[in-house]
């Protein structure tokens, strides 16, 4: 089949494409008819509908009869009985005047458009395509809008305006993807590929035809398979690949014979005529031409007849048969005037203007929607930016406050250490701490004092408390993780009761708090020495060096006594050592309001 043959057949594809969607919308339907139609049993559908229409009379539901005539029109169309399809469509058009079902009415317009288009009456096809287009605009019906686009694309192809037709077919494919109508993709690929053939873009044509063929291998749609094979044969003919062209041409004619389609067989013969003309076999061209003529008389196809007449005119002219050539020329011109008229072109131009206006409006709406979406995104981004800046400022402020608070805690700790040392010297002037390493100085148990002879007056309790501090500090007993109260009682020659009394009367801490205070003071000393030597501060092993049995108890006690972690204490010590003149703060800096 040639590219011009494919032009007139594209409407057939349009109707095939809409076959499964055409009657899904009405509120009335026949389940059996729908099932048979979906299975491709069109003759059985025709028999079923004919029987149902005979049972009905004028009192039967108008919408149901309208549904049946629309369905019957589509069925005849699928069977290539285009005159019968038109008769049923006209009957449906009469019934539609009394219907309020917009979907059934638009289906009727669609069948009128398809039938007129297929019969070559493009003026009328444009009229109903325009009605279908207007309906789809008002109702926002994507299915009918797609049908109108394909019908309009077919009319544009027949009017030799392939670039505009391609635009319509691509838009129809976009809508199919939007609706996820995968069953219609094969028709989209065929129509788009057909336009590329008309535009002599052969690689693109073959690409889309192979895409369609890939879908058709899993589906039984003989007409589509035939036309796809034929279009691929045309494409290979245009590119000079005779072997591939003959392969697909024979495949197409084989399918046409199987389906018994006279029109499709006529297209196959027209392809053979074109091949004969290219090889200058004019007698063979005439032979195939007569065969195509007989087939087209059975099933008229105006556009195909035009193509046949033009090729027969060339063949007869080359064979020096002027009378036959003139007859073919006159037949061609008569058919051309019927198919393409000035009135039709004017209507088509008006319809295209309306379509272009709608397309521009849609583009403007899309652009405005994009602008609104981008504005919202920018507003959201600005809000997120403000929130981010707010949190950064707040975190920075919190960090500054925390840093100042840590510095305050550190200075308070150092101040309190000094105050405690001075207070101890003032309160207990007899307290002496031996600086000799603990390994060289030990305090032996005092045998001169026993539990019975231990006096209970405050001075004696103070003396016991002083000796307790001297024992702890001089021997650094607090560094021993196994140190317990019994050890100290033995060293001091006292008992548990007297020792507790001495601690409670002379200190605000209990025994365990006193030991932990000594351990934490040792930890601070180790940290300060490490920082002063600029050595690496090892916080992990610090707890064992200060007499704690676990790191958890060490960190808890350190935080309790200083308000800082060991690492924070080291950091503050390092900062203080870097100051040029380290001065101890005055007492009034740390009044109760400072927290």
Model description:
The protein is mainly α and 595 residues long. It folds into 2 domains: 3-260, Tetratricopeptide repeat domain (Serine Threonine Protein Phosphatase 5, Tetratricopeptide repeat), CATH 1.25.40.10; 427-594, Arc Repressor Mutant, subunit A, CATH 1.10.10. The chain has helices spanning 3-18, 31-38, 42-55, 62-78, 82-96, 102-118, 122-139, 142-158, 162-179, 185-198, 202-216, 222-238, 242-259, 262-278, 282-298, 302-318, 322-339, 342-427, 458-475, 485-492, 496-506, 511-532, 542-545, 551-562, 566-578. It is rod-shaped.
In short:
With 595 residues, this protein is an all-alpha fold.
Helices and strands, with pairings:
Layout: H1 3-18, H2 31-38, H3 42-55, H4 62-78, H5 82-96, H6 102-118, H7 122-139, H8 142-158, H9 162-179, H10 185-198, H11 202-216, H12 222-238, H13 242-259, H14 262-278, H15 282-298, H16 302-318, H17 322-339, H18 342-427, H19 458-475, H20 485-492, H21 496-506, H22 511-532, H23 542-545, H24 551-562, H25 566-578
Task: List its traits.
Arc Repressor Mutant, subunit A, 75% helix, mainly alpha, 2 domains, 595 residues
Tell me, rounded to a whole number, the average pLDDT: 78
Q: What is the helix tally?
A: 25
For CATH, the homologous superfamily of the largest domain is named as: Tetratricopeptide repeat domain
Round the Cα radius of gyration to an integer and report it. Answer: 51 Å
Class based on secondary structure composition and strand pairing: mainly alpha
Per DSSP, what share of the residues sits in E-state strands of 2 or more residues? under 5%
H and E string: HHHHHHHHHHHHHHHHHHHHHHHHH
β-strand number? 0
Q: Residue ranges: pLDDT <50 for 5 or more in a row? A: 10-26, 435-455, 582-595
- How is the CATH topology of the largest domain named? Serine Threonine Protein Phosphatase 5, Tetratricopeptide repeat
- Bulk shape: rod-shaped
**How many structural domains does the protein architecture include?**
2
CATH top level assignment of the largest domain = Mainly Alpha
Helix content: over 70%
The end-to-end span amounts to 97 Å
Architecture per CATH nomenclature, i.e. the level-2 architecture of the largest domain: Alpha Horseshoe
Q: Please outline the major beta sheet.
A: none
């Amino acid at each position: 089949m040639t590219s011009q043959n494919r032009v007139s057949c594209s409407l057939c594809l349009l109707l095939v494409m809409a076959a499964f969607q055409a009657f899904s919308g009405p509120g009335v339907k026949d389940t059996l008819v729908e099932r048979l139609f979906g299975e491709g049993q069109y003759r059985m559908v025709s028999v079923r509908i004919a029987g149902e229409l005979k049972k009905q009379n004028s009192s039967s539901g108008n919408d149901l009869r309208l549904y049946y005539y629309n369905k019957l029109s589509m069925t005849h169309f699928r069977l290539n009985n285009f005159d019968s399809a038109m008769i049923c469509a006209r009957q449906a058009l009469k019934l539609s005047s009394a219907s309020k079902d917009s979907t059934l009415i638009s289906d009727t317009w669609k069948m009128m458009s398809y039938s007129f288009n297929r019969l070559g009456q493009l003026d009328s096809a444009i009229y109903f395509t325009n009605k279908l287009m207007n309906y789809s605009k008002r109702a926002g019906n994507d299915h009918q809008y797609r049908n109108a686009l394909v019908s309009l694309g077919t009319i544009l192809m027949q009017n030799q305006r392939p670039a505009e037709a391609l635009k319509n077919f691509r838009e129809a494919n976009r809508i199919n993807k939007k609706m996820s109508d995968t069953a219609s993709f094969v028709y989209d690929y065929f129509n788009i590929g057909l336009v590329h053939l008309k535009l002599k873009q052969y690689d693109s044509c073959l690409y889309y035809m192979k895409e369609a063929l890939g879908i058709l291998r899993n589906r039984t749609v003989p007409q589509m398979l035939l036309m796809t094979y034929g279009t691929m044969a045309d494409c290979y003919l245009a590119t000079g690949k005779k072997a591939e062209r003959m392969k697909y041409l024979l495949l197409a004619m084989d399918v046409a014979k199987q389906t018994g389609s006279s029109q499709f067989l006529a297209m196959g013969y027209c392809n053979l005529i074109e091949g004969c003309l290219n090889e200058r076999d004019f007698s063979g061209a005439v032979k195939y031409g007569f065969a195509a003529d007989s087939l087209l008389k059975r099933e008229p196809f105006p556009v195909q007849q035009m193509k046949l007449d033009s090729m027969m005119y060339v063949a007869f002219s080359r064979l020096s048969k002027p009378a036959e050539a003139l007859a073919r020329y006159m037949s061609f011109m008569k058919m051309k005037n019927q198919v393409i008229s000035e009135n039709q072109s004017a209507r088509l131009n008006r319809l295209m203007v309306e379509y272009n206006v709608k397309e521009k409006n849609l583009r403007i709406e899309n652009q405005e929607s994009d602008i609104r979406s981008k504005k919202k995104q920018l507003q959201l981004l600005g809000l997120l930016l403000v929130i981010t800046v707010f949190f950064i400022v707040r975190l920075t402020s919190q960090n500054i406050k925390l840093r100042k608070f840590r510095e305050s805690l550190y200075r308070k700790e150092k101040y309190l250490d000094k105050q405690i040392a001075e207070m101890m010297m003032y309160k207990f002037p007899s307290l002496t701490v031996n600086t000799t390493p603990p390994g060289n100085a030990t305090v032996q148990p005092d045998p001169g004092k026993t539990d019975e002879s231990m006096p209970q007056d405050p001075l004696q309790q103070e003396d016991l408390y002083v000796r307790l501090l001297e024992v702890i500090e001089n021997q650094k007993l607090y560094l021993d993780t196994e140190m317990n109260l019994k050890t100290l009682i033995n060293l001091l020659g006292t008992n548990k009761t007297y020792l507790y009394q001495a601690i409670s009367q002379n200190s605000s801490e209990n025994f365990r708090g006193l030991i932990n205070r000594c351990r934490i003071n040792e930890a601070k000393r180790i940290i300060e020495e490490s920082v002063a030597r600029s050595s690496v501060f090892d916080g992990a092993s610090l707890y064992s060096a200060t007499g704690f049995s676990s790191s958890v108890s060490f960190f808890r006690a350190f935080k309790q006594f200083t308000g800082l972690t060991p690492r924070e204490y080291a950091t503050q010590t390092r900062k203080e050592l870097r100051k040029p003149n380290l001065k101890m703060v005055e007492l009034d800096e740390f009044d109760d309001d400072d927290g």
